[in-house]
Amino acid sequence: PYCYPTSKLNNPLIKKLLITSNVGPFSVTGLRPFVDTLAKVFGEVRQKDPSPYARRGSAGVLCVRPKKNPGGTFRMGTWSNHSWGVAIDTRINGVVDNFGDGCTLTDLQRLYPYFHKEGFYWGAGFSGGREDSMHFEASKELLEQWKAQGDRKSTRLNSSHLVISYAVFCLKKK
User: Fold this and answer.
1) Which residues contact 12 (CB under 8 A, 6 or more apart)?
2) What pLDDT does 164 receive?
C-alpha cells in the first residue's frame, strides 16, 4: 500500500550506493549515509528510551513512488524521497500514523528529538494538509553535509538530477 506498484529503482548509479543493514529494531535498505545515521539514531533511542524501543518498526525506506496528496492518493510527476532511500516511515506496535489527520502517535513525538539532532525533517511539520507524522527524511543541510564529505556517500537534494549527478561524483572518486 505504501509503494507505487509499478515503479522500481532502475538507476544503476544509485543502486551501487544502496546498502541493507540492521539499524536496531529492524533492517532497512537505503543510501549508505542515511542507513548509517538511522543506526546512530536508534542506538541512541535504545540507550535513552529503552522501554518503547522494541515497539518501533519500519513501514518503508526505499520505495520508488510519487509523493502523496492529502487523502493519500499519489501526485503523479513528483517523487518521494523514499525513491532515493533517504526517508523512513515508522510504525509503532505495527501501527502507522494516519496521513493528514493532524494527529501524531506519542512514540513518534518521542522519536522526533533524536532525528532532529541528526538533521532530519519530520513529516509532522509538512504543510498543506500533508502532515505525515510517521515520516522522517534527511534534511537538505544533512544531504549537503554528506555530499561535502565526498566519501561515496550519496544524496538527493529534492531533485533526481542532483542525486544522479552526485552518484556520478561519488563513483568517480573510487
Assistant:
1) none
2) 41
Give the phi and the psi of residue 89 in degrees, each rounded to 5: -105, 130
* pLDDT at residue 3, rounded to an integer: 52
Q: Which amino acid is at 75?
A: R
Q: Of 50, 125, 116, 122, which is closest to residue 89 (Cα–Cα)?
A: 122
Distance CA 19, CA 148 (A): 20
Q: Are 98 and 110 in contact (CB under 8 A)?
A: no
pTM of this structure: 0.75
Lowest mean pLDDT among 7-11, 12-16, 154-158: 154-158
**Cβ neighbours of residue 129 closer than 8 Å, sequence gap 6 or more:** 70, 100
- Other CB atoms within 10 A of residue 2 CB: 14
Give me the mean pLDDT over the 107-116 stretch.
90
Q: Which residue has the cell 519530520?
A: 122
Closest CA to 128 of 89, 100, 104, 159: 100
Residue 115: strand, helix, or coil: helix
